[in-house]
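<instruction>
Derive structure tokens from the sequence
<data>
Labelled lines for chain and fold
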Amino acid sequence: MWDQFNPPIAPDAKSTRGFNHPNCGRLLCPASYDWSDPEVRRALQNGSRKYPALARDWPRVLWEDEKVDQEDLPKGFLRNRRLIMAGRHSLLGPRAANQSTAGKIAARKPKAKIHRIQSITVGFIAYTAVLVHFSLSSQESFGDGTTPGTYPYEEFYQYLVRHLEQVTAKETREELLAWWTRYTFSHTCHVRC
């Protein structure tokens, strides 16, 4: 199930999201910062250069349970349930994102079936990370990050793709893709969706 944030987020009010919201801010906070530190929180809310949130400063939402092991950064990386839920929503439909038991997934034919998608790619994982980040942010539209106060989504996407294709070990990448494929296309979402 999608999170019930406190305070609740109005679906049409992007201005209340991002670093302006305690839950969204915690999820978007770069993994190298401590969101519980009031100075960090204020700096991120004010766009301070002291604590930038750049495309290469990956947010906590990319890690399983938002738990980042600074000594072992690959541990849980790109295994957050929100990412899987967003991927399922994108490929299988909105009901599939929350589905926890086997059964009919969608009233209409899912995009994955229409386009014969049977496995997950590095590009899809990066695209899903962009969607999740954007949905949590206060930014009204996608941008290239050159306008003050906007996030560079294209650069974020490219950093993730490059990291997975060029930095991540082949065995680790293949295991991640298999994991994503399994949890995206299974009839149930076993990562506490």
